[in-house]
Amino acid sequence: MSPVFPMLTVLTMFYYICLRRRARTAARGEMMNSHRTIESNSRTSPLNAEVVQYAKEVVDFSSHYGSENSMSYTMWNLAGVPNVFPSSGDFTQTAVFRTYGTWWDQCPSASLPFKRTPPNFQSQDYVELTFEQQVYPTAVHVLETYHPGAVIRILACSANPYSPIPPAEVRWEILWSETPTKVNASQARQFKPCIKQINFPTNLIRLEVNSSLLDYYTELDAVVLHGTKDKPVLSLQTSLIDMNDLEDDDYEEKDGCGMDSLSQKFSSTALREGPNNGYFDKLPYELIQLILNHLTLPDLCRLAQTCKLLNQHCCDPLQYIHLNLQPYWAKLNDTSLEFLQARCTLVQWLNLSWTGNRGFISVAGFSRFLKVCGSELVRLELSCSHFLNETCLEIISEMCPNLQDLNLSSCDKLPPQAFNHIAKLCGLKRLVLYRTKVEQTALLSILNFCSELQHLSLGSCVMIEDYDVIASMIGAKCKKLRTLDLWRSNRSVCDTDIEELACNCTRLRQLDILGTRMVSPASLRKLLESCKDLSLLDVSFCSQIDNRAVLELNVSFPKVFIKKSFTQ
């Protein structure tokens, strides 16, 4: 028999397997996103009419351009019917995230990125919206009024936020996702991505955005959820297969949202027996470790099940010195942390941002993990981790004696008294308290004991009343300070505070005082004369800093980028 025929037989069998796989996938409503999939046609009877509804409430978000005590440029503008659409332009009645472009990642206050971040996880911000009725989604429309193109993922949750009974299980499903793409036009548009069907009703939708390719802030006006009360019947057209669907991207994307079966992967002890470990036995241990450093965490879990040698390498704590769990926020839970625990005894950088919400991680589970894995921690990212309470911060202060970098951005559910425990972390060099309820007494204690601080973010900390006292303490205790974020700080920062910084914090490289009304050009000139390394100064919406003042400062200090927006 010709060798061609066995090869054809193998290819035929492979193609048949692919067809079966895609048919099963379509039947479950899997992977109906982007240009690689075929739009599914839902057949609805007259009794199963489509429900169209605008968002009822904004329940969570990572950042916004507006102030906590205002409606201008805040995420809360996404609730209800459109305020602006179909008009185009810059409107205060829209929802705007805090950043755009790449300058945010290049400024002096930016942190180094985590290694092993999956390439398909590129979300920078998110907003979660609830709707009145639970429906099986058939469409999600996003009304964008200025510089569209930031939305890259849309997800649905099985939990009903308005139900008095806690759900037995909470699931997140990706309805649509795409890599960031640049939209050349800045005009308004109604963004209508082709979403996949899911097998549960939802009234909780999450948008994730990436604004890195935008030339200016994206502005969103409203979100419309289309759906049916009863589960729609899939059309036979769904089973049709696009040849592009035979790629492996769907497998990767599933891991991009969550750590499916992570616990099982880590707990699996039954390794396949093989004759030997091939050429890996001949490679130096360090070389294999270096090769494995390029794998994402789910791939590391899979590889650990191939043979005993690679299992030993994949479970080596040296593989988990930098651990980024943010991409897996939708699946990470107490069980996942428990199985990671033994491998993370040497972890130094840990990113738990966005994780643990809606009961996924308990205070007890987080505490157990840190008691085993906190001794070597240098950096801890906990942005938008709403499971945190005072006990968690107490555990951090006791179990992480070497901590230098703590990010609590948008942890707005933490009670004010919890922040007193941060003062015990005397080695802190970076502290992010953006959109938290830290009060003046706790902050003064932190500044007094954490004299090594180099980066401090107090943006939108509306419970701080007297910045004169804060500036005096910073000047007296934090002389190594390099970046200071006073974004929308109750508009109480004044010339005295700026002059205090000019006299005592001469290493400053970045200062953000957006929204202040009592800072004059004269005090800024003193600051720029004293702080020779200052490279970024944000004076947007500072009412005393007009166009002429900015031009004069630019002429005198050409190396300083002075960021200014003139309209509120």
Short description:
The chain is an alpha/beta fold and 568 residues long.
Would you kindly provide a written description of the structure presented here, covering whatever features stand out?
With 568 residues, the protein is an alpha/beta fold. 26% of the residues lie in helices and 18% in strands. The strands form 3 sheets. The protein has a 10-stranded parallel β-sheet with strand order 12-13-14-15-16-17-18-19-20-21, covered by helices on one side. Helix 11 (440-449) runs parallel beside helix 12 (467-477). It is globular and about 70 Å long. InterPro entries: F-box-like_dom_sf (IPR036047), F-box_dom (IPR001810), FBXL15_LRR (IPR057207), Leu-rich_rpt_Cys-con_subtyp (IPR006553), LRR_dom_sf (IPR032675). Keywords: Leucine-rich repeat, Ubl conjugation pathway. Pfam families: DUF7885, F-box-like.
